[in-house]
User: Fold these one by one.
Assistant:
Number 1:
Amino acid sequence: MQQASHKTLSFVVPAFNMQEYLGRCVDSLIAAKDSRDVEVIIVDDGSSDDTPAIADRYGRAMPNTVKVVHQSNKGHGGAVNAGVERACGTYIKVVDADDWVSPGSLERVLTVLREQCRSDEPIDMLITDYVYDKVGKHHKHIVRFDHVMDPDVVLHWDDLGHFGLGQYLIMHSITFRTEVLRRSKLRLPEHTFYVDFIYSYEPFPYVKTLMYLDTPLYHYFIGRDGQSVQTDVMIRRIDQLLRVNHAMAEATPEPGMVPLGLYRYMIHFLSINSVVTSVFLILSRRPVNYEAKDALWDDIDEMSPKIGHDVRHKVASRAINLPGSTGRFIIRCGYRVAERIVGFN
């Protein structure tokens, strides 16, 4: 077993006005049979409710496990930045304050990460499944990667198979080795929503080895009022989706600069993100946003003709760029069907 002073895993918990959910989140993070090598960093991002007091109670009760950071509001990205700066664990995972982790899965994850800490060549990233835990929805959709990669073995990017349309490595599925994350010099933009897409994209060229555990660790809680992924909220914040998409396009390496498997995956995810942003531009029903959609794709072409070609070649990319009002009608219908099936909003 690790020494009590050594931290295997640091959880970073960005929290802004999360008094209703913070306790559930933190309780899940400290639920392991032995949590002496687990660190929880709660970043109170300028909350005006009881979030600071709740965080401080955990800090006083478990001073060797829970750190509390109070800062003026800097948005999700600023809160993640603050937590990453203070993390002492060999590995790091971001868990939003309204989400939680599964106890059984956490035990599996800690067993693997403790083994990696003893290794001469620890893996750079651990991948786990995650659950769309939607309010009022009986069937919970689980995003699995068992058809993409073999579990419980050290992998390289070229060992990965084909990612399906609904499969991508977002923040909920990723645990980084802290040193790799810092070596990437990732600095998320402040006062910007949806920066978790940048978090789970920009550092990837610094990841050389990875491992997959086929267990649903992360419960992604969706459907509460005012949540940033609700359709009407995303339409109102379309400028921030565009900003994040631009940052991802800028971070995409040219082919030949990274392993082919990684390049293919990054093109896959950039395509998905560009399609998602385009969908909300179309759902807004505003002609100015139809023009912004075209500009989004032209922007990628201008940054890199090769990357632009490869992103546009994906099936979803071709579908989103169906011309005219008929194409937009098809996209709106497809979105409604997908939302009913998956329940992602």
Number 2:
Amino acid sequence: MPDLKGKTLLITGASRGIGLAIALRAARDGANVTIAAKTTDPHPKLPGTIHTAAAAVEEAGGKALALAVDIRDESQIADAVRKTVETFGGLDVLVNNASAISLTGTLETPMKRFDLMHQVNVRGTFACSQAAIPHLAKAPNPHILNCSPPLNLEARWFAPHVAYTMAKYGMSLCVLGMAEELRPAGIAVNALWPRTVIATAAVRNLLGGDATIRGSRTPEIMADAAHAILTRPSRACTGNFFVDEDVLRAEGVTDLSPYQTVPGAELIPDFFL
């Protein structure tokens, strides 16, 4: 089976949640992982920092580089890419995982929050990709993976939270365009999204607490799906909007119950599907 041993990944928003799970899955192969996130000190409501994440990566068998990065700042992004390449000798994978969310209607969305979502989700994804591409082009199997949904223009996905939907779809539009743009260079650009709600701190704090967590799957399902995508040949796997359970079923995984936070609980579908 192909693995990520010796590969170098830069993962944004990797101090916790899905980003950290992807980092740990790669670490178990013996990968090098740059943890690029803002949290350097413990947060009262959000577990994990770049330092605890880096320690977990090392414990799992990988090599880690913890970098405090605000992806709204292109100079910090450039420094993160440069330090990654200097430390590990190259860059094989970029995972654009960092995201901001506000499930609010038009009148309830302050422009400051609108700007944050678009600066982190869309601009951050674009800027990180832009900085990484010259180095990815030198890798034997380069991948960009955006944690963003399939493009679905049904009004029901816009009406309740149009600003957030626009911001997440902006990440998906990057996949649509960059996959074709970078095809000649052999750089794969794909999206990955969960079929169900994923049990993260953000879900617990924003989407209904313990009741929502009960109907969720663990971040490991996204990590295992990401691993399957990132080990595929980049020239033969690009421009896809993957859903986690579909990826795993294609890999021969028939029992997804181990990913449930509460065995047998009714699963809650995620947005946009």
Number 3:
Amino acid sequence: MPYKTVIVEKEGKIGRLTLNRPDKLNAINDTMLREIEEGLEELRKDGNIWLVIIKGAGKSFSAGQDLSGVDTAEVMPPDPHAKPYLSEIFEGAEKLGERLRHLYAFPRFTIAQVHGYCLGLGATIAMCCRALVCTEDAVFGDPSIRMGLAVPNPLWTWRVGLKKTKELLLTGRYINGKEAEQIGLAMAAVPAFKLDEFVREEAEAQLRFGGIGGYDMQSAWRVAHETNMDIAGLAAAWRFSSYLYGQSSIQRPGRSYIDRGGVDFTKIRREKGLKPALAARDEPTKKYFPAPAAPKAS
């Protein structure tokens, strides 16, 4: 089927889903989020596809949620200036959480092939994959923290532990691919020119061995793994993260993030445009947590 924002390809037993808004650094809008689901479903229905690689076109994997305000009703909470109903806020947060859990539980082995920026919702999508391989100069983080928003998923904690998650998500600090490997977020960080080759070798190894008992055993292992994680609390953590994400978007007069000196991102965007809003968002913490140099195209 035709797609506007992703590319779906098949090569033998390998499927590829490429985020395809390179002029926007693959910023994720509602259309892309929907087409990621549709593209993965197309690959799932093909019995010959055993493994899926998710990557980004152009200079980055994904810069995160599209912050333009256009086609973003699902990937971003409602504008607080519009005074949305609480039901609208929490139902939207729950719906986003459901879509992310669906990606996390995708029944094929998935590899996130990350280069450039991997931020916000883009980082979430990469973390939903079973393996994450990145370039050494890839950039991970969640800048929405600097807008007063909580992350809509619990995977940071489950991937790298509570201590490191608190450091990253209470400050909005970015890390590069080397540090992502050191803390366990990435399986491996490699030089940019080796990324394609490394991911292909990893994919071929998965296809060749697939665990003791063949590739069907991978499906059984996946179910057992997910069940154990849910018993440990991951299912409840997903729900709680959705709740916190919705709650964080509620700007109560006199007590809100904005009233405490935080940046009113949507107001600046409405009055001056997106670039000034981004600059205002990042300026207060720039001195303390400068972003790494912009990554090079792979």
